[in-house]
Amino acid sequence: MVFATILFGLAPSFLMVALGGIIRARLSENAWQGLDKLNFEILFPALLFVAASKRPIAFSEVLQIGPAVWAILVLAMLLGWLARPIGPERFLDFAGGWQTVWRFNSAIALVASQTIGPDVIGEMAVAIGMAVPVANMLAVIVLSRGGSLSIFQTISKVVLNPFLLASVLGVTVGLTGITIPAPILAPLEMVAAAAIPIALISIGATMNWNALAKMERFNAYVCLTQLVLVPGVTLVSCLLIGSANGLAPVLILFAALPTASAAHILASGFGADRKLVATLIAQSTLLSAVTLPLWILGIRTLF
């Protein structure tokens, strides 16, 4: 039942990626890059803002969940760095793939949360709101350094990054409890609704489909780290520390998520290898159809 629920939730994403592969020849390379630029500058920032701002966020939830998910992101980042010797030679291309280790798919997070319970859904919404700004900030930092920018230029890239600005602003609105007027929120939601479909189609059009059948060492390590090692360490940590606060299910599930489709958009915006990142996203998402239900079964059994 759990496997069927997760696979049913992932099916639309798989179909959108497949659609991109089918229609890739209908548009030029420049056209696909233009779509990525549109997503990077407007569509995905709107999605991040709307997702973070629509639900009120309590400071107590931030204090409990925030540090925990940040620790998971840092753990993934450190484990991912170990792949440097087997990664792409150019650091910018490596950074594009490296960021996929700690990036996470928010849509799949909410779908998977429904298989555990309503409390986990609410906690996952807070985890997403707290993790998105940090995950994006880390990704922007490594991609900026990959472009051999100065410290000042790197700071500017981080501070002015559309993903980071939208995430921080959305979390701020959620914390303050401000209600955005419907005439303003409605067009933002319309723009946000286009972000994920366009990103998935672009991934399908960009990725190297042959690489799905032949996974390179770097890709294999990235997927292993994200889908097995990070949630495994998180599970052991929760068992050792204890789960009295009830956060273990959401933390383990958060750690087990496949990478975000936005990773492709961000990498493209910085000039990293788009095909590598698109392929990593597809591999991570496809493999999570097997690993994620297993982690959910473990969560339901132990907690």
What does this 3D model show about the protein?
The structure is a single chain. Helices cover 78% and strands 0% of the residues. It has a single domain, classed as Na+/H+ antiporter like fold (Up-down Bundle). It contains 14 helices and no strands. Helix 6 (118-146) runs antiparallel to helix 7. It is globular and about 50 Å long. It is mainly alpha-helical and 303 residues long. The model has no long low-confidence stretch (mean pLDDT 84). It starts with a helix and ends with a helix.
Quick rundown:
With 303 residues, the chain is mainly α.
Question: CATH first level: which class?
Answer: Mainly Alpha
How many strands, what sense, and barrel or not for the largest sheet? none
The succession of helices and strands, N to C, reads HHHHHHHHHHHHHH
How far apart are the termini?
Answer: 18 Å
CATH topology: Na+/H+ antiporter like fold
CATH architecture annotation: Up-down Bundle
- Number of separate helices: 14
Structural class: mainly alpha
Rounded mean pLDDT is 84
Low-confidence stretches at least 5 residues in length (pLDDT < 50)?
none
Give the tally of β-strands.
0
Taken as a percent bin, the fraction of beta residues is under 5%
Rg over CA atoms, rounded to whole Å, is 18 Å
Any idea what the shape is?
globular
What is the percent of helical residues?
Answer: over 70%
Number of domains: 1
